[in-house]
From TrEMBL:
Belongs to the Fur family. InterPro entries: FUR, Fur_C, WH-like_DNA-bd_sf, WH_DNA-bd_sf. It is found in: Cytoplasm. Binds 1 zinc ion per subunit. Binds 1 Mn(2+) or Fe(2+) ion per subunit. Fe cation binds at residues 89, 110, 124. Keywords: Cytoplasm, DNA-binding, Iron, Metal-binding, Repressor, Transcription, Transcription regulation, Zinc. Its cofactor is Zn(2+); Mn(2+); Fe(2+). One of its GO terms (cellular component) is cytoplasm. The gene is zur. This is Zinc-specific metallo-regulatory protein. GO terms for biological process: negative regulation of DNA-templated transcription; regulation of secondary metabolite biosynthetic process. Zn(2+) binds at residues 95, 98, 132, 135.
């Protein structure tokens, strides 16, 4: 997703354009990596010295709720990145060192679905964590 599409979604849902939201979305639009609230705060504090984690998490929660951002947990901390706009089902390999993300087109549910007879799987999430070739 790009920032322009994110602003369309925010506007369609009654959210106003603010400098803080613009900086937050700009940071996500400029990278494919996952970012933490701490990453955002370190940059935003320069322009907004009174910026708090509450403000950042409130905006992040809104962006996740509207499917602008996707969320995962790495090393016990919530991490966020722009929502994929891929037109096919996929999962991700996430490098724990640099945060690079590689798309995986293989889905384990193809194998697991048959192991759950009588169950209705409504959703799933699958991520692989490790080190990318550059970080090895």
């Amino acid at each position: 997703m790009n920032a322009a599409r994110a602003w369309e979604i925010l506007k369609d849902n009654g959210y106003k354009k603010t400098d803080k939201r613009e900086l937050i979305l700009g940071m996500f639009a400029s990278t494919d990596k996952y970012l933490t609230a701490r990453d955002l705060l370190s940059v935003l504090k320069k322009d907004f010295p009174g910026m708090s984690f509450d403000t950042i998490y409130r905006n992040l929660a809104t962006f996740v709720e509207l499917d602008i951002l996707e969320e995962t947990e790495l090393n016990g901390e919530r991490n966020f990145r722009m929502h994929c706009e891929s037109d096919h089902h996929h999962h991700h390999f996430i490098c724990r060192d640099c945060g690079n993300v590689k798309e995986l087109s293989v889905c384990p549910m193809e194998m697991l679905g048959e192991k759950l007879p009588g169950y209705a799987v409504e959703a799933h999430k699958f991520e692989i964590y490790g080190k990318c070739p550059d970080c090895l």
